[in-house]
Amino acid sequence: MKWLHLSDLHLIYKNYETDVMRISFFDYLKKIFKDKVDCLFITGDITHQGQEYTDEVVEFLNEIVTSLNISKDNIYMIPGNHDIKRTKLMGNVIKGLLSEDDCKKAINEIDEESFDVLFKGQQGFVTLYERFLEREYPKNNIHFVIKTEEYNVIHINTCLIAGGDNVEGKILVGLQNILNVMREISSEKDKVTFAIGHHTVNCLNDAEKGSFLNRLSDNEVDFYLSGHVHKSNIYQESNNYKTVHMFTAGANVVDGYSDTIFIEGNLDTSSGSVEVVYHSWNPSQEFWHVNNSLDRRLVEGKYTFELEKIKKTLSSKGTVNTQAVKPIIPINKLEFKNFLIDFHNVLSKDEPISFKEKFELNDVRDKFENMKCSLSLKKQYDTYSTYFPIINEIFKSSSFVGFEKNI
To answer: Range of 339's domain?
Structure first.
């Protein structure tokens, strides 16, 4: 399964450098990804500063579809803060919510009139969504999920209060609504699950952030894809029951600040192996390329990890990766039996063999000098190492030369 993740297109934003990049962008998509992408995620800021969604915006989005030759059924899109039409009344409602002593409770219990004021600012995006994707925008919940046979996509609208002033780090998403959406997939936790939102987790209000991460973990969300900050990032949220892999895409502009980067993901559903590749625009030489300098984990051009969910499923089914299994070396049963007898006899001696006299410490030092051990592994190793002199003594005897060759 292959996906692409784009964010912060800002299609109304224009300058010469951005125009050159965007022309090359379509060529790059056609050359590298045509007929190869299973799904496309666009995490907000389609337009710029709340401006209208012109025909040119729709044409740009359709050109992406043509370049990839992808079905619009497999495109998933949510709004960003620049997709909001701001009003003074909206600003006042947001200010009131954030001034509450318990803003988490306030957004959960927001009245219908106040909600309509906030959501009205996203009507332009809703219209674009339906025009471009040619399907109805779900209006029953601010957040929603789209299910497929292979995966689920949770759409998290992080922009309900994003139309206010000074809301960075104070974003409220409404956890009750997220909980309601999560219930829709509670019986499908074994399925690969994406969550997409415009804002990174660090942009969320402290009153919601911890519980938001818990909802992702408890519902076994595998990936959280976001944008907004115009800087690409890789992050693993591992301080919970389940690990959530978080990826932040850059922007589709060249402005001297933004990372002009989009992300490619590859999941091998037969093994659980995941490869994530960051594709970057070189503004001085004017070409797209695989970025291996964004993060030390990308030194080989890709970030790799195993998806716990699939590995666990394969394990429960008894599926084994034969490449990871070492060949069994045949051992003479009689020799092994004699070895065990000798081992027992040495342990039974009144005078145990001295570790310092009979065992070379350098053997351990040379092999484990650069090893980073966990405390549990170190404890286990220290326990077993007390028997090394005994084993060493037995191996030196002439009767076990054949056995030593076998192992």
So the answer is: 333-406
- Quickly tell me which residue has 């992408």 as its tokens: 37
167-196: burial string, b at 16+ Cβ within 10 Å, e else: beebbbbbbebbeebbeebeeeeebbbbbb
* 3-class DSSP assignment, residue 7: coil
Determine the pLDDT at residue 375: 46
Here the tokens at position 167 are: 């809301």
355 and 241 in a single domain? The answer is no
Q: Do 346 and 311 share a structural domain?
A: no
Spatial contact of 84 and 167, defined as CB atoms under 8 Å apart: no
Q: Quick one: 312 and 337 in the same domain?
A: no
Q: Does one domain contain both 299 and 346?
A: no
Task: Say how far apart CA 159 and CA 155 lie, in whole Å.
Answer: 12
Q: Spell out the residues 6+ positions from residue 78 whose beta carbon is closer than 8 angstroms to its own.
A: 42, 43, 44, 155, 156, 157, 158, 196, 197, 198
80/195 same-domain check: yes
Q: Tell me, yes or no, whether 152 and 8 share the same domain.
A: yes
Tokens representing 290 are 């695989």
Mean pLDDT by 10 residues, the chain (407 residues): 97 94 98 97 92 93 98 98 95 96 97 95 96 92 95 97 94 96 92 97 96 95 97 90 94 96 96 96 97 89 91 68 50 68 68 47 43 45 64 63 47
Q: According to the model, what pLDDT value does residue 320 have?
A: 47
Give the number of other CB atoms < 10 A from CB of residue 74. 17
Q: Where are the alpha helices (DSSP H) in 42-133?
A: 55-68, 88-99, 103-108, 112-120, 123-133
Per residue in 167-183, pLDDT (tens digit) is 999 999 999 999 999 99
**Angle CA(50)–CA(83)–CA(290) in degrees, nearest 5?**
115
The pLDDT tens digits for 313-333 are: 777 666 545 444 444 555 666
**H-helix segments, 161-245:** 175-183, 206-218
Q: How many C-beta atoms lie closer than 10 Å to residue 398's C-beta? A: 6
- The domain spanning residue 253 has which CATH number? 3.60.21.10
Do 338 and 297 belong together in one domain?
A: no
